[in-house]
Batch of 3 targets.
Target 1
Amino acid sequence: MFDPEVGKGVEAFHPTHDTNTGISNTKLAMWLFLGSECLLFGGLITTYLVYKYPLPGQGPGPQDVFDIPFTSASSFVLLMSSLTMVLAVSAIERGDHHRLRAWLVATALLGSAFVAGQVYEFTAFYNEGLGFTTSRFSSAFYGLTGFHGVHVTVGIIMLVSMLLLSLRGKLPEHKAESVEIVGLYWHFVDLVWILIFAVVYLIP
Amino acid sequence: MTVTDAPLELTSGDEPPRRTLGVFARPTASTGWRSWFTSVDHKKIGVMYGATALFFFIIGGVEALLIRAQLWAPRGTLLNADQYNQVFTMHGTTMIFLVVMPIGAAFANYLMPLQIGARDVAFPRINAFSFWAFLAGGIFLNSSWFLGGGADGGWFMYAPNSTVTFSPSNGIDFWNIGLLITGIASLTGAVNLIVTVLNMRAPGMTLMKMPVFTWMTLVSQFLLLFAIPVLTSAQFLLLFDRNFDAAFFDVAKGGQPLLWEHLFWIFGHPEVYLMILPAFGLVSDILPVFSRKPIFGYTFIVFSGVAIGFMGWGVWAHHMFVSGIGPVSVLVFSLATMFIAVPTGVKILNWTATMVGGKIKLTAPMLFCIGLITMFTIGGLSGVTHSVAPADTQQTDTYYIVAHFHYVLFGGAFFGFMAGFYFYWPKVFGYLLNEKLGKANFWLMFVGFNLTFGPMHVLGLQGMSRRIYTYDAGYGFEFWNRLATIGAFLLASSIALFIFNIFYSKSKAKNLPNPGPDPWDARTIEWMIPSPTPVYNFDPVPTVERLDDFWYRKYGETEDGRLVRIASTEEVTQSAEGEHNVHLPSPSYWPLVAAIGLPIIGWGLIFTWWLCLIGGLLTAGALYAWALEPPDDPEAGHDHHPHEGSAPEGEVAVSDAETDEAGADREVETVG
Amino acid sequence: MKRFNSTLGRIAIVASLVLFVVLWVGMVVAGVTGGETEYQLTTLQPQGPFSTLIDNLVAPVFIIAGVVFVGVLGAIFYIIMKYREKGDPELDLTPMPKQTHGHTAAEITWTAIPAAILAVVAVLTAVTILDLSAEEPDSVQVEVFGQQWWWGYRYDVNNDGRFDSDSDVETSTELVIPVGRPVQLSVTSNDVIHSFWIPALNGKRDAVPGMVSPWKLQADEPGVYRGQCTEFCGLSHANMRMLVRAIPAEDFDRWVADQQKPAPEPVTEAEKAGLSEWKNNCGSCHLIDGVNNQQLAENPAALVSGIAPNLTHLMSRGTFAGSIYNLHYPNKVGNDQPFGATCTRDTLADCGDPADVALAGNPDNPVYRPALEAWLRNAPAMKPMAPDQGRGMPNLGLTQDQIDVIVAYLETLK
């Protein structure tokens, strides 16, 4: 392994711009950040699993408040936003700025619809007597889904920023990667929701 | 938040004269005290990490002396129970989060880019932000002393003792929010450093040619990347409980205290390894220099570090052997913990084997390395004794554990850092620390350290509990406590000697020649460049051919392993003379401003909401300004865009053009 | 001067190393012999089968660790002495050392050997863990509950699996157990996490609120065994101690029978006045069985943990306030018989020093009034507590007359 010849072939590396892994710094950073986020959600999902049911007599439990069809619909909306996100990335890679903007708008709108659904859902639950402090279940539920909702909201802000950049002509094709990176985040948030939806709403 | 920065740029060769002004004609940018506030240079940031950590080390050290003074005799009256609880909580928190971790970060920031031949880290402004956020978190945490008292729940902050019912003062809020802020710093730092190691190595430097310190930085930053969010999730729960009345740890509502314990230690145990690994890395790089032999079993050293990194995730519940997790869990975690001793033992034996047959120069850094190996061995062995779970039921939460982890973290990590300070001081500051004082420093620290923490083994086995502000005569505690207190003050005087040495050596250095690039006849490429490191690091960036590349530029090896000088040091080192037209990222105010907003939000959460608003606006505004600011020149328009058509080589020109565009219109993603 | 400096330096180095060796030898000596002295919290002198089990497991581990410790440190010292650069490096003409990069067989060896040693330890550990967690037949069932900052005990006397039947017994601060019979503990907490630990009898077990953890004790000999809360539990964590009185089985049965009795009626005027003062000042938190059960059931104590120590048989205990003060005069040094008077009011000199809390008060000796009176006068001054937050006993502002009659009444609570 100490063969001095080994290094020679590497001269072919461009000394400045290419990264050793071939993945750009920014994209690699996003991947790492998302890896870290997995553990953050992991902690909150674990908490929810431990606190899935309130103690008897301490307010409504999951089966009392959940409206599965409604949440399924809003989950579907969020899932569809991943599709539009893919289309946005593919549009900028083709250099189709109009479609890019259209799909960014679509993604942001679908995301907003999901957040709106969550706000509606929270309001409905609150009216049924499930406050944040009511029980361990309510704290864990609002904590986990609310935290996810904040992530979606941040994603929407990122999408709108991309849209504004594009409208100002500051998002040329060769920077398609920044849209792709926003897309990575967006898909991650969607994926996490699938997990949360399954754990919180579907698994009894 | 993740803000993208352009890849760093190197342009070599002659440039038009105006170009030289690009970096060096901005005095406010690279010199003077103001430059430190806006610098994005990994070296300045590394130095600031180190200086800040040493400052907090003094605070944490004073807290330690208060603890030891209180325990000098039975029924001590220096501190009352409440004060004592605050002092030991803040001592632990300070030493872990504001001293050992940031010293690791200091070395990682300063050294790692040099060891891999990089111009800077991957995201220089995020690097600056990481530092300022760490400092902001540290100041926030310690501001509690002036705003109603420090946290009083122990650094592990077990719920429900940490909930409002049992700790109604704001101390724990300061702890919680302060560590969330330093957590942001750690997380952004970890992402940054990992990307740097993975992506920005000099040509030819494959992973298995990296110096061990860089390897250990990589492993420990991965640990940080995955450990911090677990603590963050637990801290959210505590934050919601304390500040918004949630029911996570309210036992009356079915809250589970063990949930906090699990989450905390899933963070807490990898944390232990991420504190020790950078010091292991330093020792692995310094030991061969003064043994004049390559590290023995580089591959094993590296992979045992990686193994520790992985296994560190599977042993957290050994902190909970007595918590009632059930015999099966105890069994599993007990066995897992025993076997993590194996890779650690491999490291110790490899270091020992490195010295065998060498020609050992007992310099101050070498002494500290040997100190680490021996003291860590003791800490490791006591660790094995409490991996035996039934034994741990007698030992846990006694002074035996206090002895154990101080042997690991002070005898291990801190001795390694001291070795690093003495070794790298000339590279960083351009003058050597006085060797005689350095050796005296080592022996004083060695004696003080053993006198402080050695007796704690006996105290623990004789049944002295941890975290007690008072004890009674007649239990056999008096003598050993007295010894430990004497030791603590000796230890403090050794730190004072170190600080004296810094200033003494600096004053003497005026009359001495520059130590040159390579004062120790060292092995790794950071010793190729002038001391102190020039702002641009390498020019040109070397092509790395093998492990210890710099060494093998100086020496050849015959078939039977004898060394032959093949070049003089002067021939293979780089000179500071001449022009170095290296394009560097430009300073920025915004990382600092963004970080300042964070503690203001924190004070707002505790005292009054409108401070949250101010802090939030400050941070958000700074991030916005950051986003709009070109990464590589704050004096927009002045002498900028020098590359257009002027780059000497086509290859570079292409990349320059790319960067310029990237610079002209920065895009920013705000994430999380 | 240079020579002088280097001699001085050498002396300092040798002195440091000698100090290091002396310290460690001293510590090992203390570790080996320390258990044989009278240190009541030591983990090194097991007094029951469970602590002996632990001791038998850990002793060889300590020996192995000691051998490795001496071996590694000795080897490093030898290597340094042998391979260090001697003399003036400027004049040193010896060639650079042979360059070795590693040795795979050696690596595998020193990976395998520690792993093999640890495998043996692992097997022994596994066996001991299972032994220690096994249920003991014919054991005394006791619920142990921790609060800030004292311990309470409930005995399941009739073995119905509950700790609150009529015939069951509740006491606090001191745990009384029969010698030679296993005691099965159900450890829990009423507020924060504490940890129950009698080093001489077994390791520790956390008392976690909302959770009941099994643990067990057994003493081979009659005696007094001390403990200390070992999970940080807030302000007075240091003052939360435990005390176990192990007594012969027949004495234990008599003790249980005594504890089952309700408190006696006051007889003298002072005692009667004391009872009424007690009801007014103490009865809203403390319970004396047969006196204020009704009152407390209707108005539970305004305490975070729900209750204050049960005082029904206060005078059957030798210590109070988390065992940090002596309620009675202790025996003389060296006599750790848990019960049986060793002095009277007239022969106090036959007792030990009551201010020395390393000597446990003996319930059959005279009451040590100064500590009790000081406690009634201003409890938070005697032990840091947070009464304003419902955690601990407040300063009741009692007059000396009130204190006198209350003490007179309390003295009847045998």
Target 2
Amino acid sequence: MSEGSPRRGTPPVFLERQSYRRRRVMDGARVLPFLGALLWLVPLLWQEDPEQGVRSSAVIVYLFGVWLLLVLLAGFVAWALGRPAPGDGLGSGGE
Amino acid sequence: MLNTLVAVCIAYALFLFAIAFAAERIAAHGQARWLRSPVVYTLSLSIYCTAWTFYGAVGSAVRSGFEYMAIYLGPSLVLVGWWWILRKLVRIGRSQRITSVADLVSSRYGKSNLLAVGVTLLAVIGTTPYIALQLQSVTLSFEAFSAGEVIVGEEKGHTALWVAAGLALFTVIFGTRNLDANERHNGVVMAIAVEAVVKLFALLAVGVFVVWGLGGGLTETLARIDASELGHWRIDGGRWAGVMLLSAAAFLCLPRIFQVLVVENDNETHLRTASWAFPLYLGLMSLFVVPIAVIGLDLLPEGSNPDLFVLTLPLSQGQGGLAVLSFLGGFSSATSMVIVAAIALSTMVSNHVVMPLWLRFAEPGATVSGDVRTVVLLARRLSIIGVVMLGYLYYRLSGGGEALATIGFVSFAGVAQVLPAMLGGIFWRGASKAGAFTGLILGFVVWNYTLFLPSFGPGVLMPEAWFAHGPFGIGFLRPQAMFGLSDMDPLLHAFFWSMSVNTGGFILGSLVSFPQPLERLQGAQFVNVFEHSTSPRSWTGNVAQSEDLMIMAQRILGARDAQELFEREAEKQGGRGPLPDVTPQFLETLERELAGSVGAATAHAMVGQIVGGMSVSVEDLMAVADETAQMMEYSARLEAQSQELARTAAQLREANAKLTRLSVQKDAFLSQISHELRTPMTSIRAFSEILRDTSGLGDAEKTKYASIIHDEAIRLTRLLDDLLDLSVLENGQVNLNLREGLLSDVLDRAVAAAAADEAGRRLEIRRDRGAEQIVLHTDLDRLSQVFINLIANARKYCDAPRPRLEISVRAGARLAIDFTDNGSGVAAEAQDVIFEKFSRVSDQKAGGAGLGLAICRQIVTRLGGDITYVPGRGGASFRVSLPADLAIAAQ
Amino acid sequence: MSKHVLLIEDEPNIIEAISFILSRDGLAVETHSDGTTANEKLRGARPDLLILDVMLPGKSGYDILRELRADPATAALPVLMLTARGQTRDREMAEREGVSAFMSKPFANSEMLDTVRALLNGVPEEAPGKP
């Protein structure tokens, strides 16, 4: 191989900084649903007592807060993956 | 009021028609880009939110608190985790031109149509009640407006019927405009996007009105919520997680979701936008549900149907306009669901049920001669009407009662049965058709037994006693408490058991079965879709006529599209002609194009029918319906072909090697024949010149020289005789002089002649005279010629210090006479050419011209026997075998 | 003193013909018919000219030629080669091994005589065998 960026099919060991970031964003995209599931399953641990239990207003704020957080994170991931990928053939594949 | 509502309804419907029509027009002018933006894609996904969720979420909140949210959380997680599953599904859908869930599963598992029929059946059973639910919600919302105007049962049915008819009409018009499902339904998608906006806007408007208009602001409302009976967190933990999981699974498997998510997907990057925008949409849809529920409980009279709070709350407050908006929201939710579900189901039904049946019963050759396009369109339209009407029938039969309320989850759990086969198919190469079948059937059965049939209530479809004591009193098999899980929620119970059994059966079935070649091929393509989105499939035939394919493609794709496709492909191949060559790549492309219209299995069979050319018959056409058999035949044929190819290749290689050897030998022979001819001629010429030019030769000398000339002339003649003899034998012009005689006599003569012929070396000959007492009826002179040749060869070529030849005779089924010497034999590589003419084992061992054995073989063949070299006998060993009927053993 | 010619050839009739022709011209002809012992015979005979057949039992004429050219004692010996195969390839092979003249069978007696005389007089023979 003379020069130039490594092509698809010969995965290089070290990536340029941008490609490296992109790989980590993909990892993030993979982790995101598990994060969401985990946060949304937290209410299972709450007490169901009418007196000491969690108030519905708090539930609403919590659940929708997580929702908003996920939307923002997913939006960031989508934005990061949407940028043109330098020398990396493993993008989201859309063109 | 009711009349106004009907007018609004009709106006709204017309508005949707106009939108769809306009979108189609714009798309037809090639300006579909903005129609296909990520936003439209995201909005079209909103068909997940049906009337069941539009109205029912509030009802669910009243009844079971926050549980309704779980229905939205599951799909949100699926979208947020698009990188795992959706990305792959969409890529597979696009690269394989998948038309439906059934098509996906069928394609993955070797294009099995039987599997597709199974999934279709499941989808129809799972979706029909759901459509009924939509019709019911529209009817109920009408009722809410009628407040006082009593709608009698008859009229109730009419409302549903009108709605159903209108929806069927819309779907038929915009859902079957273009046949190729991959050309996508621009009009429908656009209308759905608009409806998505309407329903979101309606719900938000009601929510805002409730919170700020009735609740007195945000904090006030939250306080009211806390003070209400929904004031604290209470939920069945199992249901919270279970419903989340169930809705996520259903989101992946629901035919209508698959339709907009995968089939209608225009661009993979849209998925990226949807990954955050759709969860946002769902969040907004569920944001005001609890406030509406709480305020509704506060303000509306006791016993009001909480399922209609969204409608009745503004109505009760005198907000007619808002109520109508809300009604339109619910109406939108219901109609968009029915439309897309009908399209998705009709695609499945027509591709996997109607078309195979039609192909089976249509006259032979119909795929080329008949107008398939019309048939497919008709099948689609009838399927749409059938699906919608089935929903209506279900609605009428079920009486539109409470039973419908739970049907949403029942439906979810039903379609979720496809999940193991689907996910296994795209992530596990070892997943096999047998596994998919096992899983689906087991899951379907368990789902039916534990959820679907019981959902009609005890005593309706299932005897009451079964609920309490199990079938035939087997308590372990109680439909809602299998194996003693009696404390479990019936939904979770059914979901747990059906999915467990399904997945278990799927994995076990896959592990023990062996997939067919096509399955393995498709498996690799699906699982590794990102590595090779376009890798070759196995079309090997090349006999198909381009014209035939063209005609067939025209019938299905339409003349213009087909011509364009063929021109494009011809150009891609280098433009050698107006029609492309029938290459495997071209067939693959064509098949995928056709698959968009008639499904992968049928397209494959149709192309196969033409590509197979003469070898495909009516039977193959019949086999379309039962594609399992068809695929087996196909792969068997492929295997046979490849075996035959391998055999032919081996034969070719062998022949080539032989030819090369022969060519070398022919050169050598020409040299040899030249030598053989020139040597006597040299003597003849030299001595004739001496006789001519030399004066004073003595008589003795003259005589001597003349006799040398004579001998050499004879030698030349003998050589020419041999050549001639061979030529005559080869051309079959020889006359056999059949006589009777003893084998031993023939051998005697041969031995004597061979000894007389060349008296050079001594050769000891051993014989077994006892065995030679066999009477032959054949050409004895020719036979003896063969023997002489073999004996002479032994004398010439046997390189032992004391050469010895053994002649043994064995009479069995055939008479075998072996000539075995004690020399070094014939080298292995030379054994198969020694019988060819011009063949000489070595030109250093000077001797004949290499014609002897060739002549022998010709003679023996003429006599009905054959001569072979017998390897492994120590020395050179030749066997002359003759048919037994030539031989009559002496008494 | 008459010139001495050694003829190595396996066909008895051809030996007889050549011997007759050359003897009539006053040359001393010695013959030998086995390829394997040809070189020993040659060293012993020390002829002025060697006539060599290509196809000999045991050893080919080319091999004999190569060996005698490698031996300093016989390296300069004029050699006339005879062949019955008459293909150009044979001629090329012979020339590569350093033959002095080459002749295809059958030959005219006069031609044989001319070539032998020319070789013995040290005049290199051009394209013998052509009319």
Target 3
Amino acid sequence: MTELKTFKNITCTFCGALCDNIEVKVKDNKIEELKNACAISRKKYEHALKDRTSPMINGEESTYQEVIEKAAEILKNSKNPLIYGLSSTTAEAQKNAVKLAELSGANIDSTSSVCHGPGTMAKQLVGMITATLGEIKNRSDLMVFWGANPVEAHPNHSKRYTMLSEGLFKKNRSDREVIVFDVRKTPTAKMADQFIRVEPGKDFELLMALRLIIQGKKPETEAGKVAGLELAEIEAAAEKLKNARYGSIFYGMGLTMTGAKYMNTWAAMSLIRDLNNDHQRRFVMMPMRGHGNVAGSEITMAWQTGYPFAVNFSKAYPRYNPGEYTAVDLLANKEVDAAFIIASDPAGNLPKKAAAHLKDIPTIILDPHWNFTSDFADVVIPSALKGITASGTVYRMDHVPLHLRSFLEDEWPDDAAAVAQIGELIENA
Amino acid sequence: MSDNNFILITGRTIKQGMASVSGKKSDNYKKETSYVEVSKNVLQRMNIEEGETVILESEAGSVEVSCKAADLEEDIVFMPYGRIANSLIGTDTGGTGMPNSKSNVVKLIRKEAQTN
């Protein structure tokens, strides 16, 4: 029996807030105590060593080496494979996945395409003025959450970085005004000073109305309203934005998944530019990134290929086209003939009709836990647990890179090693 | 929008998040992703009891889920993200890669009414 060992400042990899203040006490390769974890994180650590995958080929038990070789064979023989997932793995594994995509002439896409991908497309159009979470915590006197519900999706975000955090200059909740724009009164909206209900699908119209008012113009209305709001209400909100000294807008998928999609975020990013233009105040903006390293998936992909997601290597050089090389489109149009899923569960998370194509093509999954995709995958490759039994690099939602330390032992190699080994087999074949 | 058509908002809940990291194939995950939240006024108008099984139909598919009364506007219904909600989401991404996960129109039908 070993002694109880304490590990401090461990990073939870569940969401993009990447809380790096988790304390674990470990004995005999098991977590005995856990501190500072949110309700979701606690469940994640409690479940970490349960429900683990093992090497499988066509539903039969296999060896680790055999599943790696089978994966290489499938990708090598495929004419147009898809490599997808990536947001819950390390930057090292993401980098190796890009190399594998190049070697196998694959499409490579991350879960960002069904998350904040449209916001990233908007960034390419207009740019985004942003800051670190630390700066926002210290300085922001007006916090806006637009189509985002961090109280349920990023439970410790408000305590560590926003509404309830203790900053250098902004000390507590009463030092900050909080406004929530949303189609429903979420738990986050209930914590705000003001909840502004947006008519579903009308975020673009409201953002453009705010831009016009801030520019000193009067927006056109329908029966005196825009997005279900009286013009006077919008003018009052615009006044609050103008009166802030340091405003921050956190946006969620309420902007990226509705109506105008990337144009919603384009309008929000343009509003931020307008608010900064007269130098009377500073305004920054940030997507509430969902998966632990989804920000890293875009950063790594951009660093490696020049593009953040939706990349195609069929011509040996990277091409980028959301709507064509994105997972939902490739699967729904039945354009791919094999798939390698890395740390994701498309059968659970993508539209059913898109995910259905995975059952018709050879599908490989690399994941430490069983999920709906591993249920039918032809090849299952087990892997170590990021931030628990595997180390690596992950990027927080504000693009701050954090190093993951492992504190338990595992029988399986990590994602980065598995992906690299498959690549080497293809390269040396 | 007609009386029993609504915009389906799919999204995160804390319990769905907790269940998703506790085993995707568990009964708890199924429970936390297989209900729809509907405005109390709509439930009353459609004579639907809370907890009753209802049918949601979209262009992409249909599902049977239990319903919960919620503090929602009458033009939307809400479902937690998950495999069941994704049966209702179509694959048209409008050239962005992103499906309409918060803007799909669904029809809400009383199961009892359909079987009678």
